[in-house]
Amino acid sequence: GLWSEVNRCGQNGDFARALKSVNKILQINKDDVTALQCKVVCLIQNGNFKEALGIINTHTKVLTSDVIAFEKAYCEYRLNRIESALKTIQSASQQTDKLKELYGQVLYRLERYDDCLAAYRDLIRNSQDEYEEERKTNLSAVVAAQSTWEKVVPEDLGLREATYELCYNSACALIGQGKLNEAMKKLQKAEELCRQSLSEDSDVTEEDIEAELAIIHGQMAYIMQLQGRTEDALQLYNQIIKLKPTDVGLLAVIANNIITINKDQNVFDSKKKVKLTNAEGVEHKLSKKQLQAIEFNKALLAMYTNQADQCRKLSASLQSQSPEHLLPVLIQAAQLCREKQHAKAVGLLQDFADQHPANAAEIKLTMAQLKIAQGSVTKACMILRSIEELQHKPGMVSALVTMYSHEEDIDSAIEVFTQAIQWYQQYQASQTRGANPKSPVHLSLIREAANFKLKHGRKKEAISDLEELWKQNPKDVHTLAQLISAYSLVDPEKAKVLSKHLPSSDTMSLKVDVDALENSHGATYVRKKAGKLTGDNQQKEQGQGEVKKKKKKKKGKLPKNYDPKVTPDPERWLPMRERSYYRGRKKGKKKDQVGKGTQGSTTTGSSELDASRTASSPPTSPRPGSGAAVSATSNVIPPRHQKPAGAPATKKKQQQKKKKGAKGGW
């Protein structure tokens, strides 16, 4: 009765009813091994992993490890007790195929990718069933993880990318290698395969397809972000968030990536997105490096939003979790700098550099930057010179020489060059076993040192560098010329001897067609210009110039009523009211006297109508719905005349008078 019921329900997939029948059997015999096993299976099928594990642990005498090892390990795996699951699998007396499959999953979650790869290869080699495609997908996922997180160049597994999952994993592996364009093509292929696969099922809606494509689109957006196409990436990220996918890991990654795009801008949007990274279960969906990156960005966001205490708390927590990691210390130092505590920031960085010499180089570079920001250039140089592994690098040499030159410390700058050149000499001597060929970087440093010394008048010190360069390349005429110039001040005889090595004028002469050169446009112009320097030509040109000047003179126009017999009025150039015979105007002729000055000017409201005052006033923002205000720099032409307020009749009379014929123009 009861067992047949359990069997029938199990075959139909009705594990809730099967569980009821099993419980009835256990009421009769509580230590029935088969019944307990069935109960554990029913609970697992119903998703009650905690209860199933509880039954296993309370019946250890009956349910021994060799009987229930897989079920126990699976419950621990699903409850995210990954270390416990690994111990359970390893302690099992017999390694069944089911345990090997679970072992591969456990190793992947523990990020032991090399062991995981070996486990899946063994499974694929020794298994022949309908799950081969799933195993290959898992194998490709391991390779993608190695490429992304461990920067291991993935080997070609020879897998045929017939499914969108395999295509997607292949794209992830390419992203890890930095092959972004190839990865994008793979993702586009994965999207196409996904649509084809899901569209064959009539029950699948367009919304279901978009939900399944969300992870592919998220990876596409990530590639766009890496390529600098931040606007496109942001648009795609937000489209995915609007779909509200159920994968909390995907949402957390997208939210984090949006925060990195926003940086110190749009912080309110970033604060909303942070909530998605705090969702329940995120820590079990992402890798350790992903979770760490999210925590770093939380600390940075706290700094950007001026939450100093929160920033310190988060960065201190990160530092305790990863004492050797640079970012927590750099974030703390940045926060101190925002609070104007530069000395404290430098002290913090110095302590970290002392405790972790392996990471000291990057920390010291930051310290030097802080010193430069404070104006302590010499101290910054001292810090940079203490980084032994970078002293010989061209970039470091260039930076130090520039900084010392700024401080006018030429001796220290030359010392930097000397130390770098000596390092290359020692290195090459050790590599070439006595032979001493110069590398391009070494020769470049010697040349820069020589040029620097010559520029700052240290010709004596430049001689040895120039001789070394000439020795390496005796045909270098430029270096020889510099060497002769340097010796001319120190040892003129030596300069004369060296000058014999200069090529003769015959060998240096160029084969030039003189006639063609003289007949060219440029030569004609130069020749004409040169012709002006000769005496005759100069006089001729001057004579022509005088003629031209006379032609330009125009005779003044005489008045229409001009009489040559009458002597002109000697006061004709003075204004009428300033002439000796001026008697003034008759009173009462005009009621409104128009002000003196130019035609149309007025005294009333002049400040209001002054165009120059309006132009010099600062522009104001337009009101909503109004036209934009014209700024002071606009090219709007102001009106030439303004009509005086309250005197229209006067203006009209003036116009009439002008029409009748006023004498003379303005």
UniProtKB/TrEMBL annotation:
Q: Where in the cell is it found?
A: Cytoplasm; Endoplasmic reticulum
Q: Where is this region: Disordered?
A: 527-666
Instruction: List, as start-end ranges, the regions of compositional bias called Basic and acidic residues.
Output: 560-581
**Looking at the record's lineage, which domain of life comes first?**
Eukaryota
Q: Which residues form a coiled coil?
A: 82-137
Domain Signal recognition particle SRP72 subunit RNA-binding: from-to ranges = 528-584
A cellular-component GO term for this protein: endoplasmic reticulum
Show the ranges annotated as biased composition (Low complexity): 595-629
- Family matches, as InterPro entries: Signal_recog_part_SRP72_RNA-bd, SRP72, SRP72_TPR-like, TPR-like_helical_dom_sf, TPR_rpt
Give the protein's recorded name.
Signal recognition particle subunit SRP72
